[in-house]
Amino acid sequence: MDLFDLNGNEDGAKPLAERMRANNLNDFIGQSHIVAEGSLLRRAIALDRLGSCIFWGPPGTGKTTLANIIAQTTHGNFIKLNAVQAGVADVKNAVEQARRDLKMYGKRTYLMLDECHRFNKTQSDSLLPAIEVGIYSVHAKLHLCIA
Length: 147
Hints:
This protein is an alpha/beta fold and 147 residues long. The chain has helices at 9-13, 16-19, 32-35, 40-46, 63-73, 88-105, 121-132, and strands at 53-57, 77-82, 109-114, 137-143. The radius of gyration is 16 Å and the shape is globular.
């Protein structure tokens, strides 16, 4: 932290969409077939029993917003990685942090993996064993690009 962290300039520089993003399921608009009152996903989030899931669809359909709501609603840790920018070392660090938090505090870790379709085989291979043994749940966000 430095002196400029306290002035709040970064909040005003965020795009409007980021500033207006819903913070809970009641404010979330759209996708009612998966987040409606009584739906499986909504109950899993409310009970903090959400497993791995993939949110797939074109830009602007609420994938990031839904992942952020899950992060704020559940009691687990939340790690964001972008498959374009994250290397194998980043994945291994996230897995190790999740393993440590599960052992020490009994806390689940949710990993939001943006642009997961861009992961190469090595990156995927470093992540899959942790998912298979249940160290953490993955919320992968995939943007569909139509050319």
